[in-house]
Write a structure and sequence with these properties.
The protein has 76 residues and is an alpha+beta fold. It is 28% helix and 41% strand. The chain is built from two helices and four strands; from the N terminus they run E-H-E-E-H-E. Strand 2 and strand 3 form a beta hairpin. It starts with a strand and ends with a strand.
């Protein structure tokens, strides 16, 4: 299994809707709301690098309210 941490910036006021939408995506392990430069920290897990990339590119980034992301691969 591969994991990544994704830092997410949201549109103002989109927090609740975005958190609920992200939690419903298979492969997203957890979503944490942050204060500071980023609004959310999202833990993503997939069978391999391609699966993680697909979850982030095809699902996470396309959710309403998501403005930008930064992805960091977790090394075991």
């Amino acid at each position: 299994m591969e994991r990544a941490i994704v830092l997410v910036n949201l549109s103002p006021g989109a927090e609740e809707e975005s958190i609920a939408a992200l939690k419903s995506i298979p492969g997203i392990l957890s979503v944490y709301q942050l204060y500071g430069l980023y609004d959310l920290l999202v833990m993503v897990e997939g069978a391999d690098d391609q699966a993680v990339k697909s979850i982030i590119a095809d699902n996470l980034r396309s959710k309403p309210g998501v403005v930008s992301t930064i992805t960091m691969k977790v090394l075991f």
